[in-house]
């Protein structure tokens, strides 16, 4: 089946790569440390409720051959301006959080902890150069390697955790109170990703179609693989 052609995959995997960050490596692990499986309900509800909004980015681009930014512009410049203001208000916080998490992981892997600010700067510059030189095609190929590595490492970590753990699992669900409500809001907000990624998704779909023509069903399948793979 053509729909299973790996060359057709791309934007959905990019979504998965963009989503796996603060939400999965920080918020979800903290939720597990503080509440065990008690906040599993919040993660499931967040993933289900956000699905239509994220999928709309792919659906709109595949159906109209336009990005969501083009759609906002056609509705009126005010909507594009609102999105711009929201992006400016969140981009620095999100970029800082993601970069700090990445730098922390790099510090652990490389054993370098002398200057985390310098390491963060180098990571940003490296990403900038890779995108500047390789553009979307490089990102499309590179993300497949990254997602494969993340998937294998996650499965290995899960296997080790299950075999090395002597405690019984408690799936009793809880609802946080007092100051923990703030953490619950952050968990839901970040899981699996902020909603503005739907705009990025529409742009990735259009870039993908420049090199590989994809049908509507193939595009939705690609998104589903990435979304539920997170």
Explain what the structure shows.
With 230 residues, the chain is mostly helical. It has one domain. 78% of the residues lie in helices and 0% in strands. Helix 1 packs across helix 6. The radius of gyration is 19 Å and the shape is globular. The protein starts with 10 loop residues before the first helix and ends with a helix. The model has no long low-confidence stretch (mean pLDDT 87).
Number of helices: 9
Largest sheet: none
What structural class results from the helix and strand content? mainly alpha
Q: Can you tell me the number of structural domains?
A: 1
Number of strands: 0
Average pLDDT, all residues: 87
Compute the CA-based radius of gyration. Answer: 19 Å
Estimated helix fraction: over 70%
**Envelope shape:** globular
In the predicted model, the low-confidence regions spanning at least 5 consecutive residues are none
Strand content: under 5%
Order of secondary-structure elements? HHHHHHHHH
Gap from first CA to last CA: 24 Å
Summarize the structure.
The chain has 230 residues and is an all-alpha fold. Helix content is 78%, strand content 0%.
What brief labels describe this structure?
230 residues, mainly alpha
Secondary structure: elements and pairs:
Elements: H1 11-19, H2 22-35, H3 40-64, H4 68-75, H5 77-110, H6 116-164, H7 180-190, H8 197-211, H9 216-229
Helix pairs in contact: 1-6, 1-8, 1-9, 2-7, 3-7, 3-8, 3-9, 4-5, 5-6
